[in-house]
Structure to design on (360 residues):
């Protein structure tokens, strides 16, 4: 049985909400994020700002240098959540199979509601019109027989676009696209593939299995080849399981004092612990993130013999990682703490993991 999957994605969500609520911002370059004085980064850039090279996760100081005329606004997360909840409600009225990836992005399985591509297109067009009518915001939709194809399609006609891939044509649709467009291909993977002459998704699909398996771990190689060949059987995950609980802070100025960093870690551990207790979670992997002034980022984690949720235990493990991995003389602009491994002690950990008993 064919599946019909939609990927719905807001266009420059935070910035679009600000333009919706303040008509004076319409048509202007808008940057959402904290001020440069607060060491802010761009949370969202309107399409007008993107024309100047402004992008999400860019230091706000850099974005304002690229586009001095841009209007910077502080994030209003409560307002963004309000709009998101409204739109997710619209999606839920269409199908129960909705996977919310973030505030501004979701997958919908509408297989049971359509009888073919013409129905599929009519539903997608109607959905976009309903969202625009009820919220005033535009979404871009992509659709096809799988999540990965729907995601690629939704990115093709932004902003305010629609692209549907006829069922059965997934491989032909993907073939001419740059290999970097494929789900799971980041910069490093793309560079390695291009080094062997793989420029398009079709090039990757045509590679002998053994050649790709020799370059990547078995699971990754298998996934890359399947997706490149238009094969993706992943189901919509309703009510996605929380993978990690995290908190982080950006210092007003770079900090090298270990005591100050440890104080921040204790505060962050309290926040993480509170969130975990609210959700009834405990985890066996504690992770610390450190970002230096040049934006280089270090992440290290420890896998414990038992799950924890106590703030003291989380802070103790995070501070131990800090002392073990901090570079002498290094200054940091950001520190983060997170806990994962909610399903029990992990048997497989990343290359940067450190396994040791719990300190507490």
């Amino acid at each position: 049985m064919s599946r019909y999957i939609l990927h719905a994605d807001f266009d420059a969500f935070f910035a679009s909400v600000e333009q919706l609520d303040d008509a004076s911002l319409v048509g202007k370059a808008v940057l959402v994020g904290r001020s440069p004085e607060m060491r802010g980064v761009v949370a969202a850039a309107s399409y007008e700002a993107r024309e100047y090279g402004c992008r999400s996760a860019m230091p706000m100081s850099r974005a304002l240098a690229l586009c001095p005329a841009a209007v910077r606004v502080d994030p209003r997360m409560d307002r963004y959540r309000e709009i998101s909840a409204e739109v997710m409600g619209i999606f839920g009225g269409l199908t129960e199979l909705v996977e919310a990836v973030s505030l501004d992005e979701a997958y919908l399985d509408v297989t049971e509601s359509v009888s073919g591509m013409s129905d599929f297109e009519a539903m997608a067009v109607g959905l976009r019109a309903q969202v625009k009518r009820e919220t005033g915001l535009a979404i871009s939709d992509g659709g096809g027989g799988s999540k990965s194809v729907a995601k690629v399609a939704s990115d093709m006609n932004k902003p305010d676009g629609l692209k549907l891939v006829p069922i059965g044509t997934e491989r032909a649709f993907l073939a001419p696209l740059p290999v970097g467009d494929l789900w799971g291909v980041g910069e490093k993977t793309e560079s390695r593939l291009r080094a062997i002459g793989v420029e398009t998704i079709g090039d990757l699909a045509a590679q002998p299995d053994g050649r790709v398996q020799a370059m990547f771990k078995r699971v990754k190689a298998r996934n890359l080849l399947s997706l490149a060949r238009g094969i993706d059987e992943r189901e919509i995950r309703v009510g996605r399981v929380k993978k990690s609980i995290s908190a982080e802070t950006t210092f007003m100025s770079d900090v090298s004092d270990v005591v100050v960093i440890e104080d921040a870690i204790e505060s962050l551990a309290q926040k993480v612990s509170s969130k975990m207790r609210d959700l009834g979670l405990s985890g066996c992997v504690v992770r610390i993130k450190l970002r230096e002034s040049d934006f280089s980022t270090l992440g290290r984690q420890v896998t414990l013999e038992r799950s924890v949720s106590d703030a003291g235990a989380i802070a103790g493990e995070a501070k131990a990682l800090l002392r073990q991995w901090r570079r002498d003389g290094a200054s940091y602009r950001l520190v983060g703490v997170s806990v994962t491994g909610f399903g029990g002690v992990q048997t497989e950990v990343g290359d940067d993991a450190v396994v040791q008993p719990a300190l507490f």
